[in-house]
């Protein structure tokens, strides 16, 4: 299988590593090889956190600039900061208002590089559903709605189901389903 590269970004405390774990576990469950790396800036102080996940037969855990198929960002500013990692034709998913993203100063660059931006206010959705700490899960579900990559919505939802502790399982699956439907309405 061709290697699929994910860069996940955000700020410390937003659950970037949990997002990576969901994707990695789903890939392992399907029998894919994975490699990953995490970089923490001032993560404990709300600083930048970046996770690289490579699904397939990669030789290195780090993704070079211009090679990521997907960029999933929990923070709009971090999405802009890590845009150089996306390859031409890459897909961008951001926790931001869909009607105000991307910034018009960046939109031309995205279009020139055939990068498809998708945005949903994942933090707002999670808050509305009574689970503000589940913004990361909301973003994974939103990403899954577009059908890109080697992991299906069913793969990711089953992984969330398996990974969720009993007391959070129902809430996590509800968040997943609602945010998946939000994404589907944008397809």
Describe the protein's architecture and organization.
By secondary structure, the protein is α/β, with parallel strands linked by helices. It has a single domain, classed as Pyruvate-ferredoxin Oxidoreductase, domain 3. The chain is built from seven helices and six strands; from the N terminus they run βαβββαβαβαααα. The chain has helices at 16-29, 76-81, 104-112, 122-128, 135-144, 153-163, 166-184; strands at residues 4-11, 34-40, 48-55, 68-73, 86-95, 116-120. The chain has a six-stranded mixed beta sheet. The longest helix is centred in the last third of the chain and has 19 residues, at 166-184.
Structural class: alpha/beta
CA-to-CA gap between the ends? 26 Å
Give helix % range.
40-55%
Low-confidence stretches: none
CATH homologous superfamily identity: Pyruvate-ferredoxin oxidoreductase, PFOR, domain III
Beta strand %: 15-25%
Alpha plus pi helix count: 7
Main-sheet strand order equals 2-3-1-4-5-6
Q: Secondary structure elements and their pairing?
A:
Blueprint: E1 4-11, H1 16-29, E2 34-40, E3 48-55, E4 68-73, H2 76-81, E5 86-95, H3 104-112, E6 116-120, H4 122-128, H5 135-144, H6 153-163, H7 166-184
Parallel strand pairs: 1-4, 4-5, 5-6
Antiparallel strand pairs: 1-3, 2-3
């Amino acid at each position: 299988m061709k290697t699929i590269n994910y860069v996940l970004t955000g700020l410390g405390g937003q659950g970037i590593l949990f997002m990576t774990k969901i994707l990695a576990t789903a890939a392992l469950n399907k029998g894919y090889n994975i490699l990953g790396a995490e970089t923490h800036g001032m993560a404990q102080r709300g600083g930048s956190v970046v996770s690289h996940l490579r699904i397939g037969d990669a030789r290195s855990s780090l993704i070079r600039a211009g090679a990521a198929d997907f960029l999933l960002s929990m923070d709009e500013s971090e999405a802009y900061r890590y845009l150089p990692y996306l390859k031409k034709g890459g897909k961008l998913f951001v926790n931001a208002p869909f009607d105000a993203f991307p910034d018009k100063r960046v939109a031309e660059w995205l279009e020139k590089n055939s990068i498809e931006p998708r945005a949903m206010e994942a933090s707002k959705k999670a808050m509305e559903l009574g689970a503000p700490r589940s913004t990361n899960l909301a973003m994974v579900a939103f990403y899954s709605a577009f059908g890109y990559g080697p992991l299906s919505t069913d793969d990711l939802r089953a992984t969330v189901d398996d990974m969720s502790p009993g007391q959070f399982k129902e809430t996590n699956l509800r968040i997943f389903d609602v945010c998946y439907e939000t994404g589907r309405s944008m397809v």
